[in-house]
User: Fold this.
Amino acid sequence: MPLLSRALVVVLVLLTAACQTVPRKPAAQFSEMDAQTLMLQGDFRGAANAYLTLARSDRSQRSRYRLRAAEAYREEGDQAAMQDLLGDIDRAKLPAEDAFRVDLIEAELALGRGDAVSADALLIEPPSGIPADFGPRFYELRARAKEAQGQTLAAIGDRAVLDGLLQDESDRSANAAEIQRLVGTIPEAELTARLRSAQRDDPLYTWLLAGARAQAQARGSEGYASDIATSRPIEPGVAPIVLDHIERGAYARVALLLPSKGPLAAAAAALREGVFAAHFAERGERAAITVYDAGGTAEEALAAYRAAIDAGAERVLGPLSREAVTALFQSDVPRVPTLALNYADAPALPPPGSLQFALLPEEEAAAAADRLLARGLRRALVLVPDDDVGKRAADAFGERMRGQGGKISGIATYDAAASDQSRTIRSLVGLEQSQGRAQFLRGLLGIDLKMEPTPRSDVDALFLFARNAQARVLLPQLRNAEATRYPIIATSAIYGGSNSAADSELDGVEFAEVPWILGITDATNIPTRAQLVSLRNASGPAARLFAFGIDAYRLLPHLEWLERNPGRPVIGATGALSADPNGRIRREPAWARYVGASPRKID
Assistant:
């Protein structure tokens, strides 16, 4: 065959092939099920093309099929194709659910270009509710939009709802990490205020509680020692108010929740006597008090609280243990205005309308720092027992001193079970170091230098935490080490509650004390110790708890006023009392000095 003829044959073959098409399914035979199948198989671009084919063949469903194509492109990650399709969708021809789906796509695109305000405006829950399949996507998008606008709590709220909708464990973990990150950005004061106002069955509450606990642990405290040391809730220069002069709530039934046995039973007995002493000293009509046994566990205390509410209690005093107070404030049990008789573990806070009250050594330690600083004594030594209470007192004293420009020149702990603390004391005040320098110079110079060890000169005062019996042992040793050349300030633990000749060792020591014990309360309706001399718990070591019970009863009618007026002090048997913004009653004590083995009030 000639070359030209063969060439013509090839051309004809190519032309014939060009006129043939690859067999395809006719558009009329293409179904929506086919497109959905491609989606399920992960062929998102193929699904988009299928939906677009359907849109061209059925103009009545054109907008709906173009929306489905846009959603397929979303799964493919092709935002440009999504945007092109949205511009040609007639929302008026879409059912309500599809209009909602368009809003989701447009919100996602708005977030992609940094327009959180437009995205948030699109993410409105429809009157008929959010379709179940789109709930996770809706709340995740809205959380992102809220966060981008600085609405952190709203973003956490949306992610808390999302947590209950997610089924996949890895998705839930990722969302939980986002919630924890967001909670960690909230300032602690704002977080605790929001936590206090949250309902206990609010999905947000658990996340806020965990975040507040993490912040407390980051401060190195699960309790309130750090907060007590760094804040002064009572307004400076404001004279305490007589409780009778402020508003009081009206109620007829009070429940008192105290344990009848166990390690807190003795404290509860003294506190209970103080409550009833104040009750019978009250003028006019008095509310009825019913005592409930709070038991020895948090569960028993909660059961007693429920029983009191069921019986018609309108106000509650208690419970007493820290664990029970924490459980109460973290529970969703129905509550009436309550004054808890301890501080809950951080960060559990009382709900609005309730407060918490406690006698804490760290509060007195912080007050001791204030007193020294007010006198210009800015450099202090610290001597405390080697136990948890001593550590909390030392931490609170040190933080308050440093927070106001003071300095801890040295700190030492002693074994409360040992009588000889001379070496610890000599080291604390610098005698050991001074003696070491003298020995070094003798060796260096080769002569017998006459040098007496002297206490350190970079000290203005000494803070001592010691119970009465311990202090009697420590003071002579402090005197031998010349440490009494510094002013010594202590907490009320140093006073045993009754005068003893053996306390002459303590002469000169200044200490915080409950005004009622010193006989200096100014309110006329507070029963005095002299009037209650026949009551066993009104004197001796239990007297402070007796006074605490007096104050607890007297504060109960005024919870609302105290909460609305944080920092405004009132006159109490245990000191000047005020509420802080976190729902705690804070106390500033009176001050006394040992003179002739007895405490004497000082200004």
